[in-house]
Amino acid sequence: MQLADGTIIPSFLGARSVSGPELNENFNNFGLKMGVVTDIFFPTDDQNVSKKFIEYQVEVQYRDFMGRPVTSKIARAAHMDAFGGLADSIRWTFRAAGKTSEGVGMGSKVLILAINGELNNSVIIGGVRDWKDADDDQSLGHNLALRFNGVNAVINKDGELNVARLGPTDNLGKSIGPWDGTQTFFSFSKDGSILFGHEDERFRLDYPNKSWEFECSKTFSVLAKASIDLSTKDPGATIFLGTRGKIILQSDTGVYIGWGGAVDALVMGTKYRAAETILHSGLVAALGALAGQLTAAGAALTTAAPFLVIPIAGPIIASPFVAISGATLTSAVASITAMITAITTFEGGSGTYLSLKNRTD
Q1: Segments forming the whole domain that contains residue 287
Q2: Mean pLDDT throughout 22-40?
């Protein structure tokens, strides 16, 4: 403020006509004052004096020592720390009124005391409830309620804790961030249960029923740098893995199925079936050829049989048919050899039909 003669008056000083001697109120402010935060100055702001801590401009209304109503601004008020230590500290920011149509009343309502009565050493020691806030509810009993920038927390009369996040809010408590109407939640129930999640993505520890529940709409992942142990103490218990898609078990050193020492190698199904198909095809072809050869040999012997009755009257006539059957039976050896080769080949590849990693008992 500047007087008519050019004198600069600091903001924490005032000028007025007086009829008699009076105390200097700028150094005699020992009363508790209530005001509204109108501006906030971070350490990097030019208006910040300490260049270390956040400072607030607060508009206060009070009565002076003569009982007259006074409205003034405390330029640089600090915020009290409830613990006041380097190792122990708690801090938060107040909301400044800003330039809104709601006016100065939309800033945080605070209580201020001045150290040694000096306004330039004012400290915000707390706040008062906003009259637009909801009425207190007697049915809640002994409780604690916290609401800060879209995070709501309540400890009710049963000692239950409920926390919900809706996203950042403005001075009216309305959401200002991207919000789809859902909320992230966390709760401790009086029965010892725990629940947290976001809509369909949730985890519940049901203490009365001694159960854990996980629910997610897409992917559920567990990553451990060492071991993951899924086991039950009840010998009659069941571990169920169910899906409409695939169940993939992947390991660099092998999958072991069974209780105790799993020593039997698992069958490599695809390789085994491919080799088995080749075996069966070879056997079918060789058996088909053998059947044809035996049929031909049998037919030739059947034709020759009438000529080989006693007394033998027609050996010359039967001879060609006997020769044909002999040659046919001899060629059947090749078919039998083909079957032996097919079986030998199949057995020769048996080492590839078993997994070198995965075991069962």
Answers
A1: 266-360
A2: 79
